[in-house]
Amino acid sequence: MPTTTFRTFARSFGSKIEKPVRTHLVNVYACLTVSMIAAAIGAYVHLFTNFLSAGLFTTLGATGLLLALMYTQDNGKNRSLRISYLVGFTFFTGLGIGPVLEYVIHVDPSIIPTAFLASTLVFTSFSLSAIFAERGKWLYLGGTLMSLLSVLMCLSLANLFLGSELIFKSYLYLGLALMSGFVLYDTQLIMEKRRAGDKDFIAHSVDLFVDFIGIFRRLLIILAQKEQGSKKRKD
C-alpha cells in the first residue's frame, strides 16, 4: 500500500508539474533540508555548549549573512559561497531559537519533538496543497498576508507597553495562521518565479525556511503555555 501510494504521488507530481519546475523544487527542498540541519546544530550549540549563545551578536550575524546571500547574485559559479551564507544564516537562526527551547525544556522536554512533528506535518500539508493546486490559486493571498503581517507587528509593538496575555495569545495564533498561509503563497510563488526564469533555488529556500521556523517557534510556545496551564490546574 505505501509503495502504491508513493507511485501514485510520483506519477501525479510528474504529470502535473513540468520538469524544470520539478527539478527546481527538488533543489529548493534539498537546500531547506540543509538549512534545518544547520539550525538544529545552532540550537544544540546554544543549549549544550559554551561556545556561542543567542544574543545581539547572533542576531547581527544572521542578518548580515542573509543580506550577503541576497546581495550576492547567483551566476552559476558562486553557489558554494551562497550556500555557505545560507548555512551560516540558518545556523545563527537556530542559535536564536535557543532561549525558547530552554523555556520549553524547563516546562516539558517532550514538547520539542511534538512541536517539530506538528510543524513538519503542517508545512508538508500546506506545501503539497500549493504544489498540486491550480496554477496561481494561492498567489492572491499575498495582499492579505502582508496586511495580516502589519497587524501582527502592531500587536507585537502594542504588547510591549500593555503586557496583555490576551494580545500575546492573539499574536501567537494569528502568527501561526499567517505563517501557514505563507507556506501556500511562497510555494506557489517559487514555482511561478521558476517558470519566469528565476533559477535561484538557494534564495527561494530561505522563504520556506522562515515559514517553517515561524510555525515551529509559535507551536513551541503555544504547547508550552498549554502544558503550564494544565500543571497549574492540577496543583
Automatic annotation (TrEMBL):
Keyword check for Transmembrane helix: yes
GO (cellular component) term, any one: mitochondrial membrane
Family matches, as Pfam families: Bax1-I
Biological process terms in GO annotation: cellular response to unfolded protein; negative regulation of apoptotic signaling pathway; negative regulation of RNA splicing
Membrane topology: Multi-pass membrane protein
The UniProt record lists the keyword Transmembrane helix: yes
Entry GO MF terms: enzyme binding
Regions annotated as coiled coil: none
Assigned keywords, A-Z: Membrane, Transmembrane, Transmembrane helix
Top-level taxon of origin: Eukaryota
Regions crossing the membrane: 25-45, 51-71, 83-105, 111-132, 139-162, 168-185
Subcellular location: Membrane
Record-stated family: Belongs to the BI1 family.
Record protein name field: Putative Bax inhibitor 1
Organism: Aphis craccivora
